[in-house]
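User:
Hi there, any thoughts?
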Amino acid sequence: MRKSVARGLSTGLVAVLGLALAACSGSGSDSGGGGGAVTGGGTYDGPKVDITFWHGWTGGAAPTLVPKLIDKFNAEHDNIVVKAVPQEWADISAKLPLAIKAGKGPDVAVLHGDDLATYAAQKLLLKADDIVDSLGYSAADFPPGVYDKGNYQGAQYAVPWSVTPLGLYVNKDVLAKASLTDIPTDKAGYEAALKALKAAGVQGEWVDGYVFTGTFEFQSLLWQFGGDLYNKDITEATFNSEAGVKALTWMQSLIDDGYSPANVAQDGNIKALLANDTAFNWNGVWQTTNTAFDGLDWAAAPVPQIGDQKAVWSSSTHWVFPANKGQNADKTAAAATFVKWMNDNSAGWAETGELPGANTVRDDPSLVAKYPNLKPFIDELPYAHYETVSPGINEANALVTTAINEALTGKKTPQAALDDAKAKADKILEQNRAKYGD
């Protein structure tokens, strides 16, 4: 069986982890880390252990791919047996905190970027600075900005696994109805294409007020116009700024100008693209694996630059090490070895519609050669924006979607919708500070 050539997470690290865990009695995020005789690379040299791994990859290619990766890892490691526990993401959110507090949580798990701070603030995750260092990782090993999403109050709690930027999906047959062949890249070109499509009887982009399309389009535009969702210390929502109003007003103009129908249903825009009823859809990289595209003449491209600068929304997922009560240091070290191996062997993860986070894997020319539709999404990563790092932020984020929906359905003006959402979000942020601390 092949073993990793590089050595790291040795017995020395296990010993230090054990001392740290014992000193803190497994009572929170201070109970992890370590240092010791580590030369980097991620080999666990301790006694044989079984480690549990919780994840929410239950759809698409993941249920087939993940077991294959785990079987391969187990075959290559005599002293580690990984046992996966797949479940819905919503179930993980409900079960994981209680399981960790009871000492029955997994040894390693995957979380979305906007959940990391909430778990860290509740002391449910091990501080992983020394683990990350022992694996040889730094921010430079991942797309700009994503590594920092695992940092909370000066400590690193996570290792990036994947990124999922938004892109522009194009139905070429529909473009041809307006005698168009070039995919627009900026505001002038995009609006000219929409105008030409309208003249040909086609509403070129069906805009909506739902999370996976309209909300992420709005956030991309917000950043393009120079704004942000919150201020630097996340004490105030700022999505109602001039930039936010410009972003939402532009989206509303698509309806007002007849480029989009009103009241588009959830997923109505991607269905319209597939049915040859529209030309453009702002959607995530995950759609590259949508088998409904088979037989369609389509292309993916970076989202057009409507504002003053390039920007695009992206999500991320990260490996974390739960701070179980009485967590075993050997299992934590073995879990770190598993994380490093998974990142090193993540090229096939593109089959799930996500981009591998590790630069060494994602930037290998063989990845795009095998999955050519990923190239425009990879090209966007230098200017991608990721989740806000703040405990309890998801409740405030949900208000952005409400505001977008209210504006696009004509219930409120863009300014009023965003102002009302900002007022409610600020109260939530205040409540979060009281609940989780500054």
